Amino acid sequence: MRKGEFGKEVSETLNCISELLERSSSTFILEMRTEQNNSDKGVKIREVRCSTLLHRLNFGERPSTEYTINLFRGCLHGCTYCYAPSLIHDDRRWGSYVDVKINAPSILEKEIRRAKKNVVFLSSASDPYQAVEARYKVTRRCLEVLKKHDFPILILTRSPLVLRDIDLIKRFGWARVGFSISSVSDPIYEPAVPKLESRLKALRRLNDQGVKTWVSLAPIVPKLVLTNLDWLFKKLKEVRISAISLGLLRFNGYEQSKVMFKERTGLDSGNVLIRSQETLREVRALAERYDLDTSCSSLNWTQEKTKENSSIDSFLSQGNR
Fold first, then answer.
1. Cα 224 from chain centroid?
2. Confidence of residue 302 (pLDDT cuts 50, 70, 90)
């Protein structure tokens, strides 16, 4: 890469994301809650204060020792299959709002001092690099706190905005950056998700800078495999990802998400989930044919912990992201 190219690409990425926020850029009055309405797009961005941030990543049957932090409530990506609406139970239309936890860095600073060192996952119910992060830099400031206390990090996003923080991520003793890619990479199902090509390009840039990367192929919707997986796996091999996790679309326990999926797509979840396990086996076999690591062993931070109490694997097997 020629000198200056990397910085130029990061700048272009930030400019593109800034355009999404341009019409809602008036000054906020910092109170307990403030609201900005983007009337043209029906998007509301609200500033809120949280009382706690660092939580155990409790997925699966065993107690977890890993953590997760969610810096936003809501997501502008607006994916039709997302499980998060079933967790937060908000009456607002999914994809039309984001609550920004503006005091997250200070709360994390207090909580991290009492926490035993382990992986912090960003994030389990929100995208840490969705468009509002370009303005608020809450994720970056929380990463600075985690770096200060030498905590390992596992990042999962759909946005190339993560390239902005590559200088900081490289300074961590243990860091993994992943991109989420689904089998339905189409605006019908993912209205505001960055283009797949931009995510692949970001993966390459991260690897070129020495950051270990991975991909969460989720959700896999058995009757909606619109992404050319042969092409995708070839590209992932070329960009040298360390691992790929595979997750099926699931609605068990996520009734609100199931209803939302049908309302927005007109499809019955039972019909699109036919042959789930068979499809998962076929996708796994195809990934392994391209020598992609589906074990995800490289995502397990091993110091002072054992594989048995890890919830990362259980979380990644859930595909509604």
1. 21
2. confident
